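protein under study:
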Amino acid sequence: METKLEKKYGLITAIAMVVGIVIGSGVFFKAEKVLTATGGNLPLGILGWVIGGIIMISCAYTFAVMATKYEKVNGIVDYAEAAMGEKYGYYVGWFMAIIYYPTLTSVLAWVSARYTSVLFGFNITGGECMTIACFYLVGSYALNALSPVLAGKFQVSTTIIKLVPLFLMAIVGTIVGISSGMTVQNFTTVVNEVNTANALFTAVVATAFAYEGWIIATSINAELKDAKKNLPLALVAGTFIIMIVYIFYYIGLAGTVTNEVMMAGGEAGAKTAFQTIFSSVGGSLIFVFVIISCLGTLNGLMLGCTRGIYSVAARGFGPKPKVFKQIDSETNMPTNSSIFGLLLCGIWLLFFYGANLTEPWFGFFCFDSSELPIVTIYALYIPIFIMIMKREKDLSVFKRYVMPTVSLMGCFFMIIAACFSHRMAVVAYLIIFAFVMVIGSMFVRKKENI
């Protein structure tokens, strides 16, 4: 039996969704990569975080403007359809369902398992870590599939929890670092000389993963109370909070250990930093909060992943739309879409392991699935922003031209940065992307009688 999604989320949950999906993994996962990419040059690293944040906020604001005009079942697909027509909306929805959602969700399952493994002393590429990753993936799916309301409450709770280690490091780390002189030392010492332009490009692409996910919050706009008012507020407020928290956390880290230690520590660098400030026991306890924050991010991503193919099927597109548009009458969840989403997550987790964590299984076709799909979504934003400037004549100059232009500049910057950062891996990814989209083209014909 098919039913409609109910209005069950409020503004606080929506803000928690934006903040919670984004904060919780990337800032821990990518802080070391940003520092390494910039050769331990903290000011350059902070500039990378600022540029990435500005791109995120400008894009979020532009979509927030669209959110006041369109409300259906999946924000980004709605906006693509409104700007470029049904077929473009379908291809965006197909990409989100087959590549974007499951790649990020699978990576987040591994990131959560990775920090759990660090806490217990397991190998981050070994069987223990991958077993934990699979458990987290299935557990997150079960929570969203069996009780969406409980998943929403979990999202709010983990958002509060995940801010604890970030705020503590930002405040205490900065105070201790200024007192000890560590902050000044790290800000004035460059570990390795690097090409500034290439380093900045690599750093910004790395921050893209840390900043990504806010667009997934638009997938609940059909389930959000007073969505035309609350979704724009959640997007703008949430993304601004994220940028400020990230920058201050990054500065706080500079007050704990030297840049050399952070760069060499990898995934253990954050744990070392927390233990340096809060003692071994206290640091380990706060590191538990870090793991919980990662799980909160995973939960939010899984929420979007379970609705991926549903957003396509609800419009009459894609394979077997009648099957994938079904909503469970008890849980109000798109059950078949959820199962398909979990399957895709498993496939992409297997790819991530074979391409990045062991001897490459796929030869030329190995690429970082934590970054390149994100850059793709910025490329897909470009036609949408152009059409806003062309069509939305009732908007003010600022909303119609200024912010979309800033957003476009950010999108082009991200694409160029990815090419410099990943080089031939971009070609490998584009071949896989093209293959997936060709398969999608087989189901582009809309089925009216479903």
